[in-house]
Amino acid sequence: MNATPNAGRAQVDAALVLLAGLGLTPEDLVASSAVAGKPVPTFAEYVPQVVAATNPGSLKTYGSYWNKVVDQWGSRALTEPTPLEIQELGKRLRAARLRRRNGRGGASSEENYVAAMRCLYKRAVADGYLTEAQNPAAKVTKPRRQPSTRRALPDARLAEINKVASTTGDDPALDSLLLRLHTETACRRGGALAVRRCDLDPKQCLIRLHEKGGTQRWQPVSPTLMRSLLAHWNERGNLDDRSTEQLLRYKDRRPLTYRRYDHMWVRIGQHLDWVDIQGISTHWLRHTIITWVERSFGYAVARAFAGHSQESGDVGATATYIKAELHEIAAAVAALTGEPHPLAEN
């Protein structure tokens, strides 16, 4: 005996009510059928695959959190943890975090952990191990980001920092070079560490910076800084003229690492208590210089000086036309350093 149309409609309605009670939609069932039967890896199996496919910048931010997740849940399948479990683990990691001199209660640590889990699960969704509706990390709320406490440093404070760096420590020449590089270019630490000999254009006093998101830009620098960078390479890095190797190096010619920055600022803080108390770091130099450029040369030059793209938060069509040229950035560098620049228009 065949079911009547009305009976079929009633069954469909009943099924929809059941799905709604489970928090699902018909689309969820269709999507889940696409991954049905596909073995779901454990965290210990999947995390190394994600690590191998992640760029160095993101890996530096997320890698430590992924390692901790493997330690906690290595044998569990990706689909096992609930949103509540993911959030609870974030709270535990926040409580057990390493206390830093510029720490602010661990909010950024928990925020980075949630971002790391979202990144991990986004890849798992793309690989077909679960659907977006099944993604537990997407249901975890990030802690609210706190306003930055960084501000532009006065000239007198910058002079104090440079004096301590150039007169203390086991390699004052290196530390002075680092501070000048960051002061003239406002680059991030990763940008400085990525510079190679082949990224220097001595004739035009330009340095190519490799920064966040795989971006590259040519930044004007003073003739004095260019000579110092070349002298540094000739003394410490001229290894069979391998110009594609990292430029900045220790006295024994080992490539510089982030650790040098940490040691430098700890030492400066031991001589200048306000540096230690306020948690001054290299990024404060970036904030200081970009602020000065904006006040002296306007928003467009400051944005170009910082290496910010037009997509980095600008609103409105007018932003499309706000673009500084290289000679304008060179003019800002000339004013900042008091040295003529070959690209600056007279």
Q: Numbering strands along the chain, what is their spatial order in the largest sheet? A: 1-2-3
CATH topological fold name of the largest domain: hpI Integrase, Chain A
Average pLDDT for all residues: 86
Q: Could you say which overall geometry the principal axes of the C-alpha atoms support?
A: elongated
**Helicity, as a percent range:** 40-55%
Number of domains: 2
Number of strands: 3
CATH superfamily of the largest domain: Intergrase catalytic core
User: Which class of the largest domain in CATH terms?
Assistant: Mainly Alpha
Q: Give the radius of gyration.
A: 26 Å
Please describe the biggest sheet, giving its number of strands, its sense, and whether it closes into a barrel.
3 strands, antiparallel
Strand coverage percent: under 5%
Oligomer: single chain
Calculate the terminal CA-CA distance, rounded to whole Å. Answer: 94 Å
- Specify the CATH architecture of the largest domain: Orthogonal Bundle
Order of helices and strands: HHHHHHHHHEEEHHHHHH
Which structural class should the secondary elements be placed in?
mainly alpha
Q: Identify low-pLDDT runs.
A: 1-5
The DSSP helix count reads 15
Keywords:
mainly alpha, 55% helix, Tyr recombinase domain-containing protein, 3% strand, 346 residues, DNA polymerase, domain 1, hpI Integrase, Chain A, DNA-binding, single chain, Integrase-like_cat_sf, 3 strands, Integrase_catalytic
Describe this structure in words.
This protein is mainly α and 346 residues long. It folds into two domains: 41-147, DNA polymerase, domain 1 (Orthogonal Bundle); 155-337, hpI Integrase, Chain A. The chain is 55% helix and 3% strand. It has a three-stranded antiparallel beta sheet. Strand 1 (200-201) and strand 2 (206-210) form a beta hairpin. The radius of gyration is 26 Å and the shape is elongated.
